[in-house]
Write a structure and sequence with these properties.
binds tetrahydrodeoxyuridine; globular; 5-stranded mixed sheet; 29% helix; single chain; 4 helices
């Protein structure tokens, strides 16, 4: 997959990525010191934010993407078009593009099923010099979803 940079994004994608970068500053990350921000754009054009929240019992940690998803659900949103993800380490910028972890991909897949939209995921380095855009179907092929339970 070829990477682009933030100049190549359309204004909606750019706005979503900047919203994710802003909420990244709200991360509660005393253990990893790694900040992640996620911004979901709903079909109606609302933007719902999430940041990672860690815990002394490390396994309790919730990622930025799932934080945004549960928040969007609580606010009554059911249809999501895209989600932007960005992260930064304690010092400097990420060397690699940050994409959603496996658990978050699984939750995005469920949201895509409910939305009936192959959700677009905008993944970026901290400096936004390298960005990859992919659909959840590309990030989680041969997945297990609601249809498999039938
Ligand atoms: N993290 C996220 O918020 N999203 C991801 O997709 C990957 C990891 C967080 C969890 C933890 O607080 C920190 O990044 C380091 O793993």
């Amino acid at each position: 997959m070829e990477s682009i940079n933030y100049h190549d994004l359309n204004p909606i994608q750019r706005g979503l990525l900047f919203a994710a970068a802003e909420v990244m500053e709200k991360a509660y990350n005393p253990y990893s010191k790694f900040s992640v921000g996620a911004a979901i754009r709903t079909k109606s054009g609302d933007i719902i934010l999430g940041a990672n929240v860690e815990n002394a019992s490390y396994g309790c940690t919730i990622c930025a993407e799932r934080s945004a998803l549960v928040s969007a659900n609580a606010l009554g949103h059911k249809e999501y078009e895209s989600i932007a993800v960005i992260a930064k380490p304690e010092k400097g910028v990420t060397e690699e593009i940050t994409g959603p972890c496996g658990i978050c991909r699984q939750m995005i897949l469920e949201a895509a099923h409910v939305s009936n939209i192959d959700i677009e995921i905008i993944m970026s380095t901290t400096d936004m010099k390298r960005i990859i855009i992919a659909k959840i179907s590309e990030l989680l092929p041969f997945s297990f979803g609601p249809n498999n339970l039938k």
